[in-house]
Inverse folding.
């Protein structure tokens, strides 16, 4: 993967960055992209179908490393792996032990994307698509990196339908996936 690290530089993160591509370096955008004839998303720019969607949507805990590699084929997901986490956000994470940090991650998944409400006939989490900030907590970085930030991304990448509450096993899977990122970034920060 190409490195998108921007040491010491602060940039304004926007939703439009989810559409960014660098196809020559195999970083695509599948965000809200059209589906191909076989029902899988293709890159908005080059029509690449290189992600193993059946694998990411199988949601097997044993495949987390492989799923990370698949997620990182998208520019937006890869960006969150390469961006430097703020010192303040790292310090907050380091102040918790691993069990507490995992518990916080699982609670965040339950509260931000696990519960749904009926808004004028559309069942969805509160403020879906906007409920995960871009900074302020290492869990937020992790949610964007692992496509656990909103129900749209969860459905797209992990095959869990919107319009219903997450089941216990789904919450656990998404929390484990999200926590994988946290452990990796914490290890890199030592």
């Amino acid at each position: 993967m190409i490195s998108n690290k921007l040491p010491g530089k602060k940039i304004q993160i926007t939703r439009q960055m989810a559409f960014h591509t660098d196809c020559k370096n195999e970083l695509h955008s599948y965000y809200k992209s059209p589906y191909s004839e076989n029902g899988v998303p293709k890159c908005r720019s080059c029509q690449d179908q290189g992600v193993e969607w059946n694998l990411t949507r199988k949601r097997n805990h044993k495949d987390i490393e492989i799923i990370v590699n698949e997620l990182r084929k998208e520019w937006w997901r890869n960006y969150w792996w390469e961006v430097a986490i703020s010192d303040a956000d790292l310090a907050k994470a380091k102040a918790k032990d691993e069990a507490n940090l995992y518990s916080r991650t699982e609670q965040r998944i339950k509260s931000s994307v696990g519960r749904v409400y009926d808004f004028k006939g559309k069942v969805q989490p509160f403020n879906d698509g906007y409920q995960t900030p871009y900074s302020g907590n290492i869990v937020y970085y992790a949610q964007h990196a692992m496509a656990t930030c909103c129900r749209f991304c969860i459905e797209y990448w992990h095959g869990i339908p919107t319009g219903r509450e997450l089941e216990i096993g789904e919450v656990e899977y998404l929390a484990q996936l999200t926590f994988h990122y946290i452990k990796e970034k914490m290890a890199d920060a030592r």
User: Anything to note?
Assistant: The first strand starts at residue 117 and ends at 119. The chain is about 45% helix and 5% strand. Strands lie at 117-119, 122-124.
